[in-house]
From TrEMBL:
One BP term from GO: neuron differentiation
EC numbers on record: 6.2.1.3
Recorded catalytic activity of this chain's protein: a long-chain fatty acid + ATP + CoA = a long-chain fatty acyl-CoA + AMP + diphosphate
EC primary class: ligase
Name of this chain's protein: long-chain-fatty-acid--CoA ligase
Sequence intervals crossing the membrane: 20-43
Originating species: Panagrolaimus superbus
One term of GO molecular function: long-chain fatty acid-CoA ligase activity
Cellular component, GO, one term: plasma membrane
Stored SUPFAM superfamilies: Acetyl-CoA synthetase-like (SSF56801)
Family named by the database record: Belongs to the ATP-dependent AMP-binding enzyme family.
UniProt xrefs under Pfam families: AMP-binding (PF00501)
Length: 731
């Protein structure tokens, strides 16, 4: 099967190679030929690479009606059978799944965290200061200890008069306290309303007001935002907060008296989570009858446009998705997962709940402490990956693109011999990987140091949230010595849709449909997408028990995105997919990302952005075009280090980033670089003709990215409206 992953290590290490490097390359070519004869050929007899290739290329999904690609596609194991909807046959709710996990793994480690040993203030040249920490080793609670705390939280909530059907907002970073509180609510039949910790006050207030919650669970650092958000929301009676994970140990633990007073003046009662647990310790837990169809979560998506939408998810919905995912995510009580993505995102909730069901331990982390070089880790001390050594990690593509660039930049800065060795080993391992072999010697020789960036023990990495660039996926496979598998799903399908397995050696696909659902492709004639094409194509519709109940208090949008056909409830994703011959799905477009230029051709903005993001000058990019012009322009957040080097080479010696980004010469140089980078990968009309350089990073806090780090296209276009017009007017 053709591999979608491009090979651009030659581009990463782009510079002329002196004669002695060519000689060195020849030497290693001969070395590997001898190595093959002595070691690899005998190893082949035992490694059985043909079996691995067969597993990779086997048929994984097919249409339910033979010969009709317009019919729903299912995983081959569910053709002619019922879809799989429960992890444990007799567990119909998330609370029941937790109880079964405790019953099966009472003494296994469950949730872990690190404490701050020392805190430092690091001054920057611009006058700003940043906190840096030295963290201790992981502390652990086993499943029975976590269960005791969950029971106490549940009893404490009940003592407040909170009962089945009432809603509780969790507005906090990813922590063990987040998940423990959520499980307590699941057991009580209390819907958990999730709100991203980085949302602005306006969006937070909108979500809290719309969902009619009677309590908010948050962290100390977010209390002031909560106070502002609930000021005019009379339904909220209780505020419960826990302490921030990463804080100076000398700081007072209690929230400021001013914030507490504000909340009390608004008529709210304020408690710490410890006070709630202590209150619950004195009470007896009373079982609550929770049904599969009861609402478990209202998950507010940050969305790429407009106000956040509350997606209503029942226990049955989430359990179906977990069942489909657990058939592919091969973990048990010997594994460790690192939890750092937002728990307000369905991807992290699903990964953690699948792991909990299998007795896996979860070590909590954050994006600011994940690696040794993460923003809040003191130089010379361990980041969370190094301390935890996880065997499973979930990522979003934006994070992996950053890892890809960090590694390739480090390789480029190595001496010429080290670069040549890396190139030779990479090419050799790539060829062997695609043939179904492992490369134990080269893993040690060239990739051991890179692999240790993520702890060195990873068995596989899950990617979701957006399509992953095929080149980045192959690079991660090779350099981190483990499979990187893509999945596809949305909040509206509980993150369930497709998931590739660890045996798939190809790149660029998101795998076959999960065993809990089916997928069909709806024709989009205007753009030329049809299930009748040589490769079936069309808008992706997902059907099954994992499809959400709809949008909270938004019947119009629910009717637009959810449809009933042939007794199946379908979610219309707006994404365009293509089934390969083996039944794996590729995401090839998004309806909202397609534009038509003045020459009449459709352009996929997402495809262009994914391709150009791999350029070392680009940290982020939003491509813009409209039907009044015949070319695209690019809004680029440059890599500060590399753009300064480019500026110096183009005669701009002032090192101030703002001045560099405003330089016409630098903008033109970047445009030329992107033109060269896109050749052979994009059509001429797809490559931006002009670029604008943005001197500030785009973040969820600035409103230009979603919490999954996807572009908020309309917000970006509005923020840079003047710059866009200026580029189109310039010659």
């Amino acid at each position: 099967m053709a591999d979608e992953g491009g090979n651009r290590i030659e581009e990463v290490l782009e510079e002329s190679r002196p004669f002695y490097m060519i000689a060195l390359s020849a030497f290693f070519t001969v070395f590997f030929l001898v190595y093959d004869a002595i070691v690899f050929l005998p190893f082949k007899l035992f490694a059985d690479p043909e079996k691995k290739k067969a597993l990779s290329e086997r048929e994984k999904a097919k249409p339910t009606v033979e010969g009709n690609p317009a019919s729903p596609w299912r995983h081959v194991e569910t053709i002619g059978k019922d879809l799989k909807t429960r992890i444990f046959p007799d567990c119909y709710t998330l609370g029941a799944v937790w109880d079964r996990a405790v019953e099966m793994h009472p003494d296994d480690m469950c949730m872990g965290w690190r404490e701050v040993h020392q805190a430092f203030e690091e001054k920057q040249s611009d006058g700003r200061s940043f906190q840096k920490f030295i963290l201790g080793e992981y502390n652990w609670l086993d499943y029975s200890e976590v269960d005791d705390r969950i029971t106490s939280i549940a009893c404490g909530l009940t003592s407040f008069g909170i009962k089945k059907g009432n809603k509780i907002v969790i507005y906090a970073e990813t922590r063990k306290e987040w998940m423990m509180t959520a499980i307590a609510c699941f057991k009580l039949g209390i819907p958990v309303v999730t709100v991203y910790a980085t949302l602005g006050e306006e969006a937070v207030a909108y979500a809290i007001k719309e969902c009619d919650a009677i309590a908010v669970v948050t962290t100390k650092s977010l209390l002031s935002k909560v106070s502002a958000a609930v000021k005019d929301v009379t339904a909220v009676e209780k505020i419960i907060y826990f302490f921030d994970a990463y804080r100076n140990p000398d700081e007072p633990q209690e929230a400021s008296e001013k914030v507490i007073k504000e909340l009390k003046n608004h008529g709210r009662e304020v408690f710490t989570l410890d006070e709630l647990i202590n209150r619950g310790d004195e009470l007896e837990f009373e079982e609550v009858e929770v049904e599969a169809d009861d609402m478990a979560m209202v998950m507010y998506t940050s969305g790429t446009t407009g106000n956040p939408k509350g997606v209503m998810l029942s226990h049955k919905n989430i359990l179906a998705a977990l069942t489909g995912q657990s058939a592919v995510i091969d973990v048990d009580n010997r594994d460790t997962v690192i939890g750092y993505l937002p728990l307000a995102h369905i991807l992290e909730v699903c990964v953690e709940m699948v792991c909990i069901a299998r007795g896996t331990r979860i070590g909590y982390s954050s994006a600011q402490t994940l690696f040794d070089r993460a923003p809040k880790i003191q130089k010379g001390s361990k980041g969370d990956c190094a301390a935890l050594k996880p065997t499973l990690m979930a990522c979003v593509p934006a994070v992996m693109d950053r890892i890809f660039k960090a590694v390739t930049d480090e390789v480029k800065q190595s001496n010429v011999i080290a670069r040549e060795l890396f190139r030779i080993c990479y090419e050799r391992k790539r060829a062997r990987y695609e043939e179904g072999y492992r490369s134990l010697v080269m893993n040690r020789l060239a990739f051991d140091r890179i692999r240790k960036l993520l702890g060195g023990k990873l068995r596989y990495v899950l990617s979701g949230g957006a399509p992953l660039n095929a080149e980045t996926q192959r690079f991660m496979n090779i350099c981190f010595c483990c499979p990187v598998v893509q999945g596809y799903g949305l909040t509206e399908t509980c993150g369930g849709g497709t998931l590739a397995d660890a045996n798939d050696l190809s790149t660029g696909t998101v795998g076959p449909p999960l065993r809990c659902c089916e997928i069909k492709l709806r024709e989009w004639a205007d753009a030329g997408y049809s299930p009748k094409n040589d490769h079936p194509q069309g808008e992706i519709l997902i059907g099954g028990d994992n499809v959400a109940l709809g949008y909270y208090k938004n019947e119009e949008k629910t009717k637009e995105d959810f449809i009933e056909e042939d007794g199946v409830r379908w979610f219309c994703s707006g994404d365009v997919g293509e089934f390969r011959s083996d039944g794996s799905l590729r995401i090839i477009d998004r309806k909202k990302d397609l534009i038509k230029l003045s020459h009449g051709e459709y352009i996929s903005l997402g495809k262009v952005e994914t391709t150009l993001l791999t350029n070392s000058l680009v940290d982020n990019i939003c491509v813009y075009g409209n039907s009044e012009h015949d070319y695209l322009i690019g809004l680029v957040v440059p890599n500060e280090k590399n753009i300064k080097e480019l500026a110096k080479n183009n005669g701009v010696k002032d090192g101030d980033l703002k001045k560099i980004c405003s330089s016409k010469e630098v903008r033109e140089a970047v445009a030329n670089e992107l033109q060269n980078h896109g050749k052979g990968k994009l059509q001429r009309a797809e490559i931006p003709k002009k670029v604008w350089l943005c001197d500030e990073a785009w973040t969820p806090a600035s409103g230009l990215l979603t919490e999954a780090l996807k572009l908020k296209r309309k917000n970006i276009e509005k923020a840079f409206e003047k710059e866009i017009q200026q580029l189109y007017k310039s010659k």
